[in-house]
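2024-03-11 09:14:02 DEBUG pipeline.ingest accepted 1 chain
2024-03-11 09:14:02 DEBUG pipeline.ingest length=279
2024-03-11 09:14:03 DEBUG pipeline.predict start
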Amino acid sequence: MSARITKASLDQEDAQFLSFHLSNYKKEEVSEKPLLSDSDAAALAPYLTSQAVVVKSVLRRRRSTQNTTAGDTPQRRYNVLLFGDSLTAGWCGEDGYSEYHPYGLRIQKRFEEEGLDVEVTVSGVPGELCAHMEERLKRELEQPGKWYDWVIILGGTNDVFQGYSAWDIFESLKKLYALCSKHGARVLGITIPEFDLEEANKLDYQRRIVNEHLNVFNNSTTRNTYTLFLLDKFLPMHSLTPEQRKFFWNEDGMHPNEGGYDLMGDMIFDVIYKEGKWN
């Protein structure tokens, strides 16, 4: 296919484009290595500064009552929680943490197009570690009068940058999944996406090991409670041409741009719409 991708041609070529990169993704052998050195940690420190930002929003329009008549059975309302760090918050700005475009915007739009009454909640904390997410997730799940049919969890990039071992990151994610299941929500786990940051590229082996653990966990878990979406495979970074990469990824080498978040939303919606019961 042509290396030139435009917004006009993307819709027609989505399936071919993603299939092409999935089939050409070279799986490398990975193994555990020593954790982050002091010098590496110092180099990454500017990227890990704690930000006093919590992006939490409910992306839902007022229900239409135009076609509702007396005696109609009210449509069931569903609730979907998107939970994680800056990738969930949808950071895509270039000057601090000033601009957000969460992939939940596209998920909400797709539910509305299907005529479903779904409330999508975005809860993302830039810079947060999976190891520190458990209490915040617990508060989200235990809100009085609130329930979630699905919880979508995307985290781990910051843990990799901090030098946590792949096993520790995986164990932290499993605790989050178990907490959601305990509260009756179906879980969509998401693999850690690729990154291209000079100070952190030497840690990519840990990212890949975490994703391998998630794959094994997915294959041994009941399908109706947990599903895994391979974000690193379907929205790659390194296998894209420079022009393709500019269309999907921010120049910081860590976050998608608006086009990338929209594509994430479309793909993730397709997974939960297919896997869920929305009647």
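2024-03-11 09:14:41 DEBUG pipeline.report The first strand starts at residue 55 and ends at 59.
2024-03-11 09:14:41 DEBUG pipeline.predict end
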